[in-house]
Amino acid sequence: AMSGITIHIEKTSNPAIIKYEASSFLTRHNSYEFKNIDDAKDSPLAQQLFYLPFVKTIFISGNFIAIERYNIVTWEDVQDEVAEQIQNYINEGKEIISESATPKKVVPVTIYAESTPNPTVMKFVSNKKIVDRIFEFKNIDETKYAPLAQALFHFPFVKEIFLDKNYISITKYDMVEWNDITMEIREFIRNYLQEAKEIISKDIPAEQKEKIQLSDENFEALDDISKEIVNILEEYIKPAVASDGGNIMFDSYDPISKVVKVVLQGACSGCPSSTMTLKSGIENTLKSLLEGKVNEVVAING
Hints:
Blueprint: E1 7-11, E2 17-22, E3 31-34, H1 44-50, E4 55-61, E5 64-69, H2 75-91, E6 111-115, E7 121-126, E8 135-137, H3 147-152, E9 158-164, E10 167-172, H4 178-194, H5 206-209, H6 216-221, H7 224-243, E11 246-254, E12 259-266, H8 272-289, E13 296-301
Parallel strand pairs: 12-13
Antiparallel strand pairs: 1-2, 2-5, 3-4, 4-5, 6-7, 7-10, 8-9, 9-10, 11-12
Helix pairs in contact: 7-8
């Protein structure tokens, strides 16, 4: 019988799901998922856990048990007693998964690297969604609520990080070539996502949540030309910029000088070629769609 196994509690990217990591393997080579007590007939441990009224789904794989809860409790209130229950069960040498259990097929995370118009930026694209919206981090101090970005800043060559939907754009310092580090970053991100670790903490303050989109109130307060500019950026410019791993945001419009200011983020900020291309591209688009209303576009780095 196993003895002296300890359980360590890990948060995940989903506040409803918590991971209990054991100090040794619980299953070999297979993963199992149980949706209810009947489902768990081949796992006496899972069956026991389903007696807890807040347990919704149980996932057992390698050295951990992940549990999804119903909203009747928060994990803070119950996580420790669940950890103790799991630890006692395992240390009594009881069966965790019976031989007859059917393993779950796990879709592996894949990450591929894609170059961008900015030679210092590489886009790492996942086959699974990473975040719901855009995040940008200029340094490790900004990553208090973003554990994945914080972990990436531990690589000395990572300068800036930009997350959107299913990809991460990383800006590197010139001290290294992409060839020497791409593989390592890809593996790191893949393992991080595969282990379902927390990406953005649910404790992130509201003001840090939405820096990117104009709120409806702000949009309504704009003058008509500014509104048209915002709509044109959203419809024509943003998709092109996003495919290069960046984002663009309306800043201001001056009706006297007819200067439009936009904010660039991600791969487009600080990259000589894209600033020129974007500037002329956006300028031409706005000039042709809003005749006589726009003289110049000024790009500021976000």
